[in-house]
Amino acid sequence: MYRWCTDEVEPHDRFDYWREVRSKGLFGVTAELERERRADFYGEFSLRQLGGGGLVELKASHYTVERSTSDIANAPGDSICVYQQLGSGGWFGGMRGSDFAIANGSFATSHTDLPYRTTPLGAGGFHLRILKIPVSALPTQDKRVRELTPRTFDDPTLAPLLGACFADLGEGAAGGNDGAADATSLVQALGHLALIERGIVRPGSRLGQAALRTARLSQARRLIAGHLQNPDLAPTMVADLLAVSVRHLHMLFEAAEKSFSQTVTDERLKQSRRLMREAPERLIADIATSCGFESLATYYRVFNAAYGMAPGDFRAQGAERHSPLP
User: What are the residue boundaries of the HTH araC/xylS-type domain, all occurrences included (predicted)?
Assistant: First the structure.
């Protein structure tokens, strides 16, 4: 991951550097800000290349961005962008069609090589994630992909799916040996969900179904993680929250590394380990209950089967590693 912020530049040079090196050189856009406001400018971003796409998270104080025809000619991208608005909202305009605002928590999509202007709506400035996916990395080569002017997602059923995929990418949830494959499936899912929204990919097509499966599995896992304390956490509950049948939910996990029940147990164990590290004074029985285990005996049995030791021994090992040397 590459990170950068304006603290690395002298205050009087920060906006000029952001405009010429970061905005124009890296993102291919023109940044503008009134001269009297430049001394207080702040900006930071991270960039990760993963799964065939580039994920940017950007925070910056208020300024105006334009992707002009000359910017496009100098730095063509031929990619689709999926935006997740995390700040106070933004305005888009200057392209074919009507202007629009994107609210906090909302999503939008566009093709990189169409002109637009954007600026934050609130005083807090920009805060958004942008996933850029080269058109060449998408299985569909429909010419309409290159005609995607910026527009918000109108289908409310897609928002939680998009949010789950973005969260998994942003948090690095797809780790381990299968991390690269998981990142690729998440990037493809986000791209094809965007194309479903714009009517280019049909939900019932092979690409559409694959995107929906990936996104629903991502959301199901996050729903599990968010309801660990509930001892009644069960497939029926998660299926209802996902608005799918229990059979469909189990089919999602059949293609995954772990079943639904294995995922629940694994998440509860990982949560209990985190709590033992973060709160060494907390009773193990209280931790077991807070993680949704039906009894202390069940917790000890499952923990020992997974890690080959009792919870108390795990806690003692952690205390020994962090104790000062004699």
Answer: 218-317
Q: Tell me the C-alpha distance between 305 and 301, whole Å.
A: 6
Nearest Cα to 159, choosing from 199, 206, 193, 128? 193
DSSP three-state, residue 259? coil
Give the residue from 84, 117, 152 where a domain finishes. 152
Domain count, the chain: 2
Residue range of the domain that includes 302:
263-322
The number of helices, as runs of H, and strands, as runs of E, in the chain is 11, 12
Kind and range of the H or E run holding 53: strand 53-60
CATH code (residue 273) = 1.10.10.60
Give the pLDDT confidence of 138-165 residue by residue, as tens digits. Answer: 988 789 999 999 999 989 999 999 999 9
Has residue 114 been placed in a domain? yes
Q: Record the tokens describing residue 282, joined without a space.
A: 């907390």
